[in-house]
Amino acid sequence: LLLANLCSLKETTYPKLKGLLGASKGTRQLVLDGTPCVCYKAVDGRHCGKWLQKMASREATHGPLELQIKYQADDDAATFAMEELMLDALTTGGWPAINKLKYEGTYDDDTGNWIGLLGSVCPNLASLYLEKTGLSSHHLWSTMCLCKQLSTLTLDRVFVDFCAAQHAARLASFAPALRTLRLRSCQAASSIVGALSAQLTELQLESRVEDPEDEEDLPALQTAVASCTKLTSIKLVMRGEGWLPHLLLLPSLQHVTLVYDPVNTVPDAGVQAAGQWLT
Q1: Rounded CA gap, 73 and 45, in Å?
Q2: Pairing of strands 255-259, 37-41
Q3: CA angle 138, 228, 244 (to 5 degrees)
């Protein structure tokens, strides 16, 4: 019954597990082996990190673990805390059980050096979700080569600086298994999509109205999308016109979702004909 209840939880925080972890040895082991998803918060401290390590290093027979990391500290504190957490994990055998990782930053923080350790710490990672943080180097791209199963990447309001955007050109060689890409308000969207154009099968792009830099890159982004010949599904949530002619160039496309801002955007005239085309 306890295992069934654990498996039904979408997100388990350390405070929720604390009582069970302090119970009998059998109960504690059941929690460590059966929890499918845990949310680690900075306020939980190093004591939580000890139990996280035990969960994340469990045998594959107990099932994968989804880890969500949230920081509400200032930018430097979040970066240093993540680096310390990764280094601790690396010295104690890594986190082989983790197949999904979501990191939520503080908008002003940067992934710094810790992102470069990700591949060594989580070699079985299949899905990576970064939110409200920044990339200022090639470390994320290069560490992906150690994650042979990485198939899904989400960058949600992640600032990718010029250096990181330039190195994104080698993404295909670093992440050959990557098939699903989701980008929200990403200034380097055209570079990232273009680098993965030969392998993507699912793509989601979203930009906010208040992001003028995204609009300036629209022609380059549309050209990059048109080169994704293996795409079977695409979702576009953004301003801008002229998407339909580019989508018509995709021979494998089966599912299309176009979402326009009804207040600030005049819909593409060709969108009205999209329904007839898709049927």
Answers
A1: 12
A2: unpaired
A3: 125
SS3 40: strand
Predicted confidence (pLDDT) per residue in 152-193, tens digit: 999 999 989 888 889 999 999 999 999 999 999 888 999 999
Cα angle, residue 142 at apex, residues 138 and 143 outer, rounded to 5°: 115
- CA-based radius of gyration for the chain: 20
- The DSSP string of 112-177 is TTGGGGHHHH-TT--EEEEES-EE-SSHHHHHGGG-TT--EEEEES-EE-HHHHHHGGGHHHH-TT
Compute the Cα dihedral for 226, 232, 238, 243 and give only its sign: positive
Confidence label for 259 from pLDDT (cuts 50, 70 and 90): confident
Residue 181 CA to chain centroid, in angstroms?
8
Q: How many angstroms separate the CA atoms of 50 and 64, rounded?
A: 18
The mean pLDDT value for 245-254 works out to 93
In this structure, is the dihedral angle defined by the CA atoms of residues 262, 208, 233 and 222, taken in order, positive or negative? positive
Element (H, E) at 29: helix 25-34
Instruction: Report the distance separating Cα 145 and Cα 15, nearest Å.
Output: 35
H/E element holding 75? Answer: helix 75-91
Handedness of CA 145, 146, 149, 155 (dihedral sign): negative
Cα separation, 41 vs 58, in Å, equals 21
